[in-house]
Amino acid sequence: MNIIISGALGRMGKTLAEAAKASGTEVVCGVDTALREQTAEFPLVKTCEQIPCQADVIIDFSVAENLNTLLNYALQTKTALVLCVTGYSDRQLRDIQEASRQIPILRGANMSFGIQVLAQLAAAAARILGKDYDIEIVEKHHNKKADSPSGTALMLSAAMQKELGGLSPVFGRHGKTGERGANEIGIHAVRGGTVSGEHEVGFYGDAEEIILTHRAENRALFARGALRGAAFLVEQPPGLYTLGDAVADLIG
Ligand SMILES: NC(=O)c1ccc[n+]([C@@H]2O[C@H](COP(=O)([O-])OP(=O)(O)OC[C@H]3O[C@@H](n4cnc5c(N)ncnc54)[C@H](O)[C@@H]3O)[C@@H](O)[C@H]2O)c1
Predict the structure, then answer these.
(1) What is the number of domains present in the chain?
(2) pTM
(3) CA dihedral 96, 101, 102, 104 (to 10 degrees)
(4) What is the residue with the minimal CA distance to atom 33 of ligand 1?
(5) Quick check: CB of 218 below 6 Å from ligand 1?
(6) Which end of the chain, N or C, is less surrounded by CB atoms within 10 Å?
(7) Is 3:80 a contact under the CB 8 Å cutoff?
(8) How far is the CA of 8 from the centre of ligand 1 (A)?
(9) Cα-to-centroid distance, 81 and ligand 1 (Å)
(10) Catalytic residue among 78, 131, 142, 145
(11) Which ranges constitute the DSSP H helices of 130-177?
(12) 36 and 85 belong to one structural domain
């Protein structure tokens, strides 16, 4: 598999180039509007229109505003597209859906492969344990994070809600809340210091607890997840996929 990196000079773009090199994936071109000089081990260009060669897949870690240009390029060249950028509008999400009728597209706001595995394990545990166990999610992030709870905590909750109908999230608890309701999934956000990201899903039963935890130590894991997603995507027909599909494919 060979790839083009969109947003190649950004934090994630550079991390992805390193991860690609470590995994033996060839980067044939990098695209970044901030290009001033050739600083990479592969050719860099400023816009998609200047890409000089074909690739199996483009991995995008640029900005949401770049979507139209990317989709045009990918549709014209029939190149698979891994979209890792966050912050798309509803209109852009519809454009992605429409384009995926012609090319394979994988989109994910959390490309950590481990988090996808955690979501599948949590869903399986919820299915097996049923409603006799109280489910509580605790997520921790650095003190600069602007939103709570994390989108990933919501994704984990949704994965378990899908398995066990009738559950609904309860965000934090304060005051005279009374007994815990049987249909609650508690979601709690801890903020402090420089924590890269931690998600814990706890199943609390009668005299026993099962805790599943994922800890992100740095951004390299998102780059590795994007590469795994790309490897899955190049084998797929046109359609819209998630990294969760790639994990399910591996688990079988
Ligand atoms: N899905 C995930 O798991 C995941 C993980 C980390 C970051 N992200 C997302 O990836 C994106 C990039 O994050 P970052 O921290 O690397 O940001 P960054 O600002 O460091 O990098 C973005 C790069 O894109 C370039 N760029 C801007 N407009 C462009 C265009 N039109 N064409 C090509 N390049 C363009 C910028 O010059 C910059 O170098 C953000 O949306 C972030 O939320 C997603």
Answers:
(1) 2
(2) 0.84
(3) 70
(4) 32
(5) no
(6) C
(7) no
(8) 8
(9) 15
(10) 145
(11) 151-163
(12) yes
